[in-house]
């Protein structure tokens, strides 16, 4: 196997999240160009690929996403867990990411929303998926909003 074909060697050949239900979401997403699966309440999903901060390997997961003025908006909630999700830690270290939104591949730079940007984006995401408000109540950490600005 050449290095280009090694899983995790590039954004085009990522290692998929191995949590069973997430892996199933990713497989269904890829098989239908994002037409399926649908998430609770019909929240739209995207595939996010980040580069590991320790391993350097490219990893993919499935997340709820909203579009805002050409940007992709994500929530690093991990269901209200006390720690940030690994994908968030990865993009903090390596902000160049790939988002698949249905059939569109978007290469972009990820960043955490500023305190000024966050309130409006948080409201938008809670309106899309109300459980986010409950997740914030469950944890002492401030749940970050991530903005992915597309690269030209």
Please tell me about this protein's structure:
26% of the residues lie in helices and 30% in strands. It is α+β, with helices and mostly antiparallel strands. It has one domain (15-150): Pnp Oxidase, Chain A (Roll). Strands 1-3-2-6-7-8-5-4 form an 8-stranded mixed sheet. A hairpin with a 2-residue loop joins β6 (96-101) and β7. The termini are far apart. The mean pLDDT is 94. InterPro entries: F420H2_quin_Rdtase, Split_barrel_FMN-bd. Belongs to the F420H(2)-dependent quinone reductase family. It holds the Pfam family F420H2_quin_red.
SSE order and pairing:
Blueprint lengths: L14 E2 L3 H12 L13 E7 L6 E7 L1 E3 L2 E5 L10 H8 L2 E6 L2 E9 L5 H11 L2 H8 L6 E6 L2
Parallel strand pairs: 1-3
Antiparallel strand pairs: 2-3, 2-6, 4-5, 5-8, 6-7, 7-8
Label this structure with key terms.
oxidoreductase activity, Pnp Oxidase, Chain A, F420H2_quin_Rdtase, 152 residues, 30% strand, 8 strands, Split_barrel_FMN-bd, single chain, 4 helices, alpha+beta, eight-stranded mixed beta sheet, 26% helix, coenzyme F420 binding
């Amino acid at each position: 196997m050449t290095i280009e074909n090694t899983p995790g060697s590039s954004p085009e050949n990522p290692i998929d999240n191995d949590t069973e239900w997430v892996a199933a979401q990713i497989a269904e997403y890829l098989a239908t160009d994002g037409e399926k699966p649908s998430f609770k309440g019909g929240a739209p999903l995207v595939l996010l690929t980040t580069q590991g901060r320790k391993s350097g390997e490219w990893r993919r997961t499935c997340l709820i996403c909203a579009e805002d003025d050409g940007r992709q908006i994500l929530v690093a909630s991990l269901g209200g867990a006390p720690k940030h999700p690994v994908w968030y830690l990865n993009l903090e270290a390596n902000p160049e990411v790939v988002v698949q939104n249905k059939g569109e591949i978007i290469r972009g730079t990820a960043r955490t929303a500023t305190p000024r940007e966050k309130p409006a984006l948080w409201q938008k995401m809670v309106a899309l998926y109300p459980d986010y408000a409950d997740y914030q109540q469950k944890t002492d950490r401030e749940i970050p909003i991530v903005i992915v600005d597309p690269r030209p």
